[in-house]
Amino acid sequence: MTSSIAAIAPNGDAGAQGTFCDDMWQRTADLMGAIHDHPFNTALGDGTLERDRFAFYIVQDGRYLEAFSKALATASTRAADPADAAFYAQSAHTALAAERMLHAGYIEEFGLGAEDAAGIATSPTCLAYASFLQATALTAPYPVLAAAVLPCFWIYQDVGTALLQKAGPEHPYQKWISTYSDPAFAASVEQAKSITDRLATTTDPATREAMGEAYCRAAAYEWMFWDSAWHRESWPTARWLS
Ligand SMILES: Cc1ncc(CN)c(N)n1
């Protein structure tokens, strides 16, 4: 009989011993299925996603990426290993430089001016996800922060790669799909996974448990983010507050 939390699967079943990432992939298997099957992503994949929905997503995502980038920059300052620090610093830059450049292209293509974008309120889900990342960056142990940012890499690569199978060159969202199915992005996902796995094996059981909770919370927010874009989520209180 084992007494080590690290040797217990995150769902509480004794037995299955894998890396932290293997455990997380198993634990979120149903959620990943729901992400791939979400109408936003199936329509994104077959190119039928309405522009309004995608534009709403792009505006929200630009705001999310600012928070994500800050969380990564904080991870860089908190990393003890210089190679990890460089990885998170580089990723913080990429989130703002490359991903937001992708957004800028779509915003221009859709003829969305700065004023139009400013008129779209940050959705409750976008704010919740961004706030969760920033709170984790500022208050949680560094391994928990590494786990919290991992789904942002891994899930996007998984979705981008799956959509690549369906997308031809004339696909309206080809650039989005290419960004997240790019081998360079896959390499950064592998690095984020390997850092997180290493931290999970060297930390104490309670922190590893908290890493699992942070990973699953962020993965849940990923589903919620696409769902909120699909429904163009607004504040139920908007009628009283402008
Ligand atoms: C909500 C969200 N999550 C992740 C990613 C990929 N960095 C993104 N652009 N947006």
From TrEMBL:
It is an enzyme of class 3 (hydrolase). Pfam families: TENA_THI-4 (PF03070). It comes from Nonomuraea marmarensis. CDD domains: TenA_C-like. The gene is tenA. It catalyses: 4-amino-5-aminomethyl-2-methylpyrimidine + H2O = 4-amino-5-hydroxymethyl-2-methylpyrimidine + NH4(+); thiamine + H2O = 5-(2-hydroxyethyl)-4-methylthiazole + 4-amino-5-hydroxymethyl-2-methylpyrimidine + H(+). Residues 28-230 form the Thiaminase-2/PQQC domain. Belongs to the TenA family. This is Aminopyrimidine aminohydrolase.
